[in-house]
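User: My instructor asked us to take a sequence, write out its structure as tokens, and then describe one feature of it. I'm not sure where to start. Here is the sequence I was given:
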Amino acid sequence: MQTSASYRIHSPLNLVSKTQSPASPSLADSKSITSTGVGHLQYRPDIDGLRAVAILMVVIYHAFPSLLTGGFIGVDVFFVISGFLISTIIYKQLTVDSFSFLQFYARRIKRIFPALFIVLLFCFAFGWFNLLADEFAQLGKHIAGGAGFVANLVLWSESGYFDNAADTKSLLHLWSLGIEEQFYFVWPIIIFLAWKKRVNLLKVGCFIGLVSFVANVYEVHRVANFTTAFYSPITRFWELMVGAILAYMMLNQKGLVDRYPGGAFKALHRLVGNNGISIVGVMCLLVGALLITKESAFPGFWALLPAMGAALLIVAGEGAWVNRMVLSNRLMVWIGLISFPLYLWHWPLLSFAHILQGQMPEAEIRILIVLASIALSTLTYYLLEKPIRANRFNKTKAIILVFLLMMVGYVGLNTYQRDGLTFRLAQVRFRLPPVLQTLAMKNPSASDTAIGPLKVDCTLPDAVKMKPEGAVCYTQEELQKPEILLWGDSYAGHLLAGYEERYGSQYQIMRVGHNGCPPILDMELPNRKNCTAGNADIVRRVLRDRPAKLVIAANWTDYDWRRVEGTLIQLQQSGFTSIDLIGPAPVWSDGLYKQLYLKYLSDRDPNIPYRMSFGFNKDKDFLGIDADMAKMAAKLKVHYLSIVNILCNADGCITRFGDTGDTLESYDAGHFTNMASRYVVSRFPGK
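Assistant: Let's start with the prediction itself. The structure tokens for your sequence are:
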């Protein structure tokens, strides 16, 4: 399809003719957007160099998070690059009427499926011989999610206060692949339909990008729903749209400059030039990588830094100094070429090492893992990915790749549905003693933090209308009893079983507060904006209703616990002194059962200990906090209840009360089972 000047102005795409130079000399080198065949771009080594920057940021962050706190923004750079390259190819094919959905998705299959299949197969094989049942079940679920390109949705659905640590999710990184492929399920269709209906593609792209960005900002900065903003395709598509919009503008820059002589392209170049544009892009990436942390309100406005940084480096063109001397460096280009398999390999290896050791591996081991990842990525690229991509389109090969990925996805789903294939425990690697096997058996009631259905005071305004599903109203008889309020996060909730058993016949036991919210006034948490208002409401209720006892408990190791002193003083100054302050519970690294298993592997002693200090989380000094909190309570004349004094002595802390899963002290890294809750509360001093 030939295009004329008038066609460039009035067509939906306004692409320039292949017979004319598509680049304005005021912006980018025309070679970067010159067609070398239908639907293909002339190779730009600096974009592979930009890929190298992105993957290096991600790998450094995962292996050494303290060195580059915002390294995870490398994924956002990948989004922009992907949106730019894929959209450019689609745009160019549309102008010559050669776009084919079949060939588009066949190329995606050839690009992604081979390396992904190998990595998923490796993870399954490794998990078979090395992971416990619950770990293997989780891996199976994530293999299925990764193979179906819905990993982001799976991780989104299971996120929450009781969610497993990210370090134990060996396929956590596949969330970004899910976002990207979901984008390519819908974006080509939108482009194609808009093209056929002669709708301006720039306006379509800007509209979609703006809606997605606004949704992202709303979720992060308005309602503080960081999990949704991070994993939802709706709040992430705008980053790929930045690349798609950039592709349109670079392919059509002459037409845009003709129509808008004072437009952004011309003004930007006049102001700083190509070198200046690339330097600004580098600064955006540096600032983001150094200032953003996992506690930042991300993505939100922060995500503009990597998105704009990547876009500016692409716009600057391969002739800009940074692009020419740094990004086009042969080493950077090579790293960029293996960036996709390196992204797939590095995180499972780091995660498996963490799982096997029950904690973050030593720095030396992490360095070796990174080197092993590079080696595996190189082999994957040269022996698998490159040969398959170099071959001409073959429907049979594409079908085979789809079938293989579907099969590994099915195997993962089956593993999840069958609770991690517990029969594997008889394999040589495990050979667990009988007690350790029975302790692995889950009792659904062992992890309950509520006794029976949730109870609500339906006499309160709007209580019936806002009553959670499954909740029941307190009876009039129960409402007549004096109250004991358990105020705190889920570590107050896990005491319910004990308080109900010991005091339920005399008192109405009610838990107030929310998971993840410490019982500390005026403590702002970046990802839980409702904690401050909720805690203020609880204190007003306490001062109004004057319960018989206010029990304050939390996972103190997760917060600046010393700030609870101000809350206690405020309650005392308001005339309320009937307070019990409960100290921290033991904290096990990666979970108590996992530590019992690792203890057995370390000494092969079949006598699984009832008490041990092995496996304490070194980053959570619950023993030191208990001693300091006791002193603070004594100073304030607040009644202090020490869990440590009940569960722990010089030989360690109690691990179990019997031989089954529901008799463990904790069903995860610190939350009590119901048996442990009853044991601890029954030994609290007092009536």
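For the description part of your assignment, you could build on this observation: The CA atoms of residues 29 and 546 lie 75 Å apart. Try explaining in your own words what that tells you about the chain.
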